[in-house]
Amino acid sequence: MLQISRREEIGAFILAVLLTLGLLFKYVILPRPAPEIIIESIEEKSVAENEVMAEIVVHVSGAVRRPGVYALKEGARVVDAVEAAGGVTPEGNVDALNLAERLYDGRKVTVPYISPQGETSQSTDGRVNINESSSAELEKLPGIGPAKAAAIVSYREANGHFRSIDDLVAVSGIGSKTVEALRDYITLY
């Protein structure tokens, strides 16, 4: 059996009284603050609703049933853009796209056609798409060797697609002179 000394009984009693007084003080004696009333104007409310309903506009082209410009919800992915354009045609190479990639406003999504050579990252005018090309395809560009091609792919994987050709200067080993020399040979779409 547990034996408690007289001193321990007094200590437990004092603790119980202090706890009771603390709870009484907190919940009964102290006044409760009035709930904060927030008055929101109609304009502020509509702005907040518009922020929730933000849209982006993307251009879908290539091997899709209905190429065109589509408004999608912010945070949409490439698969959403392709579906908005009616899906991929039988001649389209959907495997050349990253369907899970997030879209941004003003982006152009081109679904490439299946070609006999298997090359899908060149645009219709022969330029190389720096946002989709593999290292081997980038090495075909003048002044781009294996190291620079790998750096472009690594940068793209870490930071997302290039939004401007001038963004290439952020890649290690590529300066503004190289970008100017490549300008006629590359594209973003």
Report on this model:
The protein is α/β, with parallel strands linked by helices and 189 residues long. The chain has two domains: 49-118, Ubiquitin-like (UB roll) (Roll), CATH 3.10.20; 121-189, DNA polymerase, domain 1. The chain is built from six helices and five strands; from the N terminus they run ααββαββαααβ. It has helices at residues 6-29, 42-52, 78-84, 135-138, 146-159, 176-182, and strands at 55-62, 68-73, 108-111, 128-129, 186-187. A three-stranded mixed β-sheet has the order 2-1-3, covered by helices on one side. The protein is elongated. Residues 117-122 have low confidence and may be disordered.
CATH topology of the largest domain: Ubiquitin-like (UB roll)
**Largest sheet data:** 3 strands, mixed
CATH hierarchy class name of the largest domain: Alpha Beta
Write down the overall mean pLDDT: 83
From the helix content, strand content and strand pairing, which structural class follows? alpha/beta
Offer a quick outline of the entry.
With 189 residues, this protein is α/β, with parallel strands linked by helices. The protein has six helices and five strands. The protein has two domains: 70 residues, Ubiquitin-like (UB roll); 69 residues, Orthogonal Bundle (DNA polymerase, domain 1).
